[in-house]
Known about the structure:
Elements: H1 14-64, H2 66-70
Amino acid sequence: MTSSVDGLVSGLSTSSMITQLMSVEAQPQNRLKAKVTTAQTAVASYQSVNTKAAALKNAGDALSQLSTWRSIKATSSSTSVTASTSSNLNSSTGSLTFNVTALASKQSTTMKVSTTLVDSDNDGKTDNPTP
């Protein structure tokens, strides 16, 4: 069993002084711990970016494979259009052609708006214009 008689003879609170000195001595270590935490956060962020960049690279690699594109089938919503694809894996990239038979035309709408302001009840305020 330990008993303490803090400052009994000297009148000083020695335990408080020791606690404060320990706190002062621990400050460099606390700053170092904070730097380590910041560095660990940065490393985790870089690893996340690296993982996402690797996933993007893998997706790009998959897109560059001819077999990826061979699984696509051509379709058309029109019964008058025939759509077809080549199943030959050794064939080179072909061309795509659209025949435009008609162009869309523009549309414009006009509406007559009265620009004459009227004070029909003579109250000094203009009434809402009527079309």
